[in-house]
Design goal:
Strand order of the largest sheet: 1-2
Number of helices: 4
Largest sheet: 2 strands, antiparallel
Structural class: mainly alpha
Radius of gyration: 23 Å
Mean pLDDT: 83
Low-confidence stretches: 1-5
Length: 145
């Protein structure tokens, strides 16, 4: 087997692997993406309102964190708002597509379980959108002072 030559930063190659104090940093965002997506999926499939909301909040927040940390986006709050709008639009489509009704004798009529799942996605999207809005306003106030 050939011996690997790795420089240790001093310019001399001694044939031994160099051990440096610099360790590559690993991001925790992918774990939260997986966790959030799994919890949101469980919430949507089983129909547990809280799981759906917490899962989508975690998922959208983690995706935003990855994009911001990687430098793909300059404004994390705007990205979170866009992802929240996507979840909100999907929730509205599912709710209305499967017979959900707004107005009438009841404020919101949920005729079946699928429409209920759409309603939980609407709540998750609205809460995430509210979070993005508050975060954006806070960051603007912090930048102005």
């Amino acid at each position: 087997m050939a011996k690997e030559h790795v420089e240790d930063g001093t310019g001399e190659s001694d044939g031994n692997r160099a051990v440096t104090d610099h360790k590559p940093s690993a991001s925790l965002w992918p774990m939260f993406v997986a966790f959030g997506l799994a919890i949101a999926e469980v919430g949507v499939v089983i129909g547990v309102f809280v799981f759906t909301v917490v899962g989508f909040l975690t998922f959208t927040g983690a995706v935003t964190g990855i994009l911001y940390e990687s430098g793909y986006v300059e404004n994390a709050w705007g990205t979170l708002g866009v992802l929240a709008a996507v979840v909100l639009a999907l929730g509205i489509a599912v709710f209305l597509g499967f017979g959900g009704v707004v107005g009438g004798a009841e404020l919101v009529a949920v005729p079946n379980g699928v429409a209920y799942r759409g309603l939980s996605m609407i709540a998750a999207g609205a809460l995430t959108l509210l979070t993005a809005g508050v975060g954006s306003i806070r960051s603007e106030f912090a930048a102005s002072t």
